[in-house]
């Protein structure tokens, strides 16, 4: 029976970290400067990373990272979370593992003080994410990277998806329509 694991990255078991890195390298080798050794960080430690995984008999079936930061200033500040590195082991795809991890990640945001979630995906995956409540926001593209070196997702053919979890988050998403959401995610980084 597959088991759902939800923990801060610091407490994510080393063997599951190794498998998540191995699968990430298979899927996105261009994101690595060298094959991972297995003990590297999966997420930016500055962004309160949480790992959500579906595991069966020690085998990582599906995984996603959730990272969070503060967005805005003063009274308007919002806690924002994003999904990153979502994947399912190739042989296990199409069996609902990804959906289970995605639903758990969204529920984690809902109960952890996240005002709204936002991240990007390739256009064919919009329907997969929509089933867990994520809505395409074509007039509010996510811009990652840094202030000095922005990473504008729309220019790379990515679609931005968002979901509000609190009234404050809902108000902010309405207010922000027609403008990009610029998050400091680090050079070359995007959710
Ligand atoms: C996207 C992914 C995580 C889905 O995991 P999964 O365990 O197969 O997901 P589920 O079985 O719960 O759901 C699969 C659904 O997503 C759809 N889907 C998955 N990948 C798709 C793709 N590339 N194009 C179109 N639809 C896709 C399937 O058609 C299926 O829909 P159905 O239920 O109507 O048949 C998995 O395909 C994957 O790891 N892909 C490679 C990495 C990747 O692209 N990650 C997303 C980064 S934003």
TrEMBL record:
Residues covered by the N-acetyltransferase domain: 1-158
Signal peptide: none
Superkingdom, natural source: Bacteria
ATP-binding listed as a keyword: no
EC number per UniProt: 2.3.-.-
Key words, A-Z: Acyltransferase, Transferase
A GO term for molecular function: acyltransferase activity
EC top class named in words: transferase
Alphabetized Pfam families for the sequence: Acetyltransf_1 (PF00583)
Transmembrane segments: none
Protein name: GNAT family N-acetyltransferase
Organism of provenance: Chitinimonas lacunae
């Amino acid at each position: 029976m597959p088991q759902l694991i939800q923990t801060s990255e610091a407490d994510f078991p080393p063997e599951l970290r190794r498998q998540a890195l191995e699968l990430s390298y298979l899927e996105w080798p261009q994101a690595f400067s060298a094959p991972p050794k297995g003990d590297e960080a999966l997420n930016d430690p500055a962004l309160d990373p949480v790992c959500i995984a579906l595991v069966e008999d020690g085998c990582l079936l599906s995984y996603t990272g959730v990272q969070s930061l503060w967005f805005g200033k003063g009274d308007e500040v919002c806690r924002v979370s994003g999904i990153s590195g979502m994947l399912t082991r190739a042989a296990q795809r199409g069996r609902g593992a990804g959906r289970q991890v995605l639903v758990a990640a969204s529920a984690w945001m809902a109960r952890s003080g996240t005002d709204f979630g936002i991240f990007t995906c390739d256009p064919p995956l919009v329907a997969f994410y929509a089933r867990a409540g994520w809505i395409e926001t074509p007039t509010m593209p996510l811009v990652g990277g840094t202030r000095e070196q922005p990473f504008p997702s729309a220019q790379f053919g990515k679609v931005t998806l968002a979901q509000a979890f609190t009234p404050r988050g809902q108000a902010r998403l309405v207010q922000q329509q027609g403008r990009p959401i610029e998050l400091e995610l680090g050079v070359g980084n995007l959710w």
